[in-house]
Amino acid sequence: MSGSGLRGEPLNYDAVIVGGGISGATCALVLSHFGWRVAVVEREAHITPLLRGFSRHGVHHDTGFHYAGGLGKGEVLDRFLGFLGLSRKIELYPFKRQGFDRIIDRSTSDVIDFSYAEQDWRDSLLAAFPHEATAIDRFQQTVLSICDSMPYLNTKKTFGEEGLFAHSQDVSLQSFVAELTQDHRLRAALCLHCLLHGTPPDQIPLRLHAAVVGPYCRSVHGVRGGGSQLSQAFDDCLQQAGVDSFCSSTVTAMSVGREGEIAGVLLASGQKLVAKQVIHAADPRLLLDWLDERCFRPVYRRRLAALQETQSALVLFGRSAQPVDALAGRNLYLADLQQGTQLFSGTIAQRPLYLSSAGQGCGIIGIMPEDYSRFEPWQNTRRGQRPDDYRHVKQQYCEQIMERIDQTVPEISQALQSPFLATPLTLRDYLHYPQGAVYGVSHQLAHYPLQVATRVRGLYLSGQALAAPGLMGAMVGAFYTCGTLLGHQRVAEELNQCH
Ligand SMILES: Cc1cc2nc3c(=O)[nH]c(=O)nc-3n(C[C@H](O)[C@H](O)[C@H](O)COP(=O)(O)OP(=O)(O)OC[C@H]3O[C@@H](n4cnc5c(N)ncnc54)[C@H](O)[C@@H]3O)c2cc1C
User: Using CA atoms, how far apart are residues 196 and 213, in angstroms rounded to an integer?
Assistant: First the structure.
């Protein structure tokens, strides 16, 4: 903890930020840039725990960051990282332009490449679906025009007051691709990147999907050293900015003044942090427990309570002695495109498996959608103390995933040393979303998008629940929240001065 203060003696800040993920840490850096005295509260032992990864048997494994769009020179994330001071502390590297993401289709053994730079994106998909030029062009044009219409994704637009990515009058990705083509395999390929936000194609608003995947049409980068390097850069910048980080500290309540204005937060230790502005950058549903029910209108409470989580996952971790060629500068998606757009259901042999060794070279991660409900029988067990039948199921799943890799890319299965699996229960305990969500709460067509300001004066929302998941979504959300507090124009002018 870098913040201090005697237990029970309130500490005063201009703003307290709840949750020290990418969103919370970004909010803290932006506000401190404008001279605010800021504290961040994070329940884990370090800031940005999801980026930091973990060590097992002395070996480090990366978790929450492998690649991103929008990091090319002058693109939106590049500008954000420059402004925050993170660019100076990390080294970016480009993914392979041709086939940064490569699908290997189990049903046909075809290889389908997603490439970046607009023409290459189109041409590589067209090589796999030569009769589908119209559908491919329409998909790309629609996705890019949606991105370009959003002030936060288009650096030439005014960083303004318009809404964020989600839109109440939208269509689902699934109905959009169903209109484009009759080819089930192409439909599946165009929906596969739902793995990057964890909401199925029939529920994700097209605009949200476009905002997440569109930037990958233009450039794709990783960070040398992976998420842990980015995490270290956040630590350094927060320290230099004089932000007080309360780590291993859990917020348990918020206090509200007589006029209904926010007054601060209470930590599990009993410590009070006083502030006229509080930014909530963790699961928005937590507010239901932390505030008196009169603080929000019943309809808003119902809306928060109805938020559903994104898909959970099985996550395979392992290391290779040498970097594996098949994963050099690209990720693989082992998929069964005959399954169509039912990406999150089916057997282990049918569900898509994302494989990456981005960032660290020898660390390999595999992510496959998985329902939390399959692990409900063990939901009351604790990490490190789970029973034999759970461990048996986990081992079986690990072997089945390894077999799947072995059938398609034996180079990877042979190189993988001591692979092990994280289940939805592991994710639940690690990420603090009750159903083990990979990307927090889901942005669904059926839900009205969350807004930054709440009815409690001085209490604002940020986080992946506000804009979108991913480094991009988390940072856009953070800048948007800070723009609401500071004035969007003021933030935009400072951002522009960095370039
Ligand atoms: C396996 C995996 C791989 C991923 N790969 C990529 C990738 O390649 N590229 C990409 O762009 N994105 C990727 N992501 C997504 C990206 O990491 C997330 O979208 C992003 O980190 C979310 O940041 P956030 O700050 O909004 O949310 P979170 O990281 O969830 O931050 C919320 C924070 O609040 C803390 N918290 C919760 N409750 C409390 C409380 N009561 N008191 C105090 N603190 C609390 C939590 O510990 C957490 O640190 C990946 C995610 C996962 C899980």
Answer: 8
Q: pLDDT tens digits, residue range 457-499? A: 999 999 999 999 999 999 999 999 999 999 988 998 898 887 6
Question: Which domain CATH number covers 230?
Answer: 3.50.50.60
CA of 204 from ligand 1 middle (Å) equals: 19
Q: How far is the CA of 22 from the centre of ligand 1 (A)?
A: 7
pLDDT in tens, 71-125: 999 999 999 999 999 999 999 999 999 999 999 999 899 999 999 999 999 999 9
Residue nearest to atom 49 of ligand 1 (CA): 21
> Relative to the CA of 463, which ligand 1 atom is closest?
26
- b/e map of 210-219 (b: 16 or more CB within 10 Å)? bbbbbbbbbb
Looking at the structure, tell me whether residues 153 and 177 fall in a common domain.
Answer: yes
Residue 319 lies in a domain: yes
| Residue at token pair 């999907």 | 209
Roughly what angle, to the nearest 10 degrees, separates helices 470-486 and 206-213? 110
Which residue is closest in CA terms to ligand 1's atom 8? Answer: 66
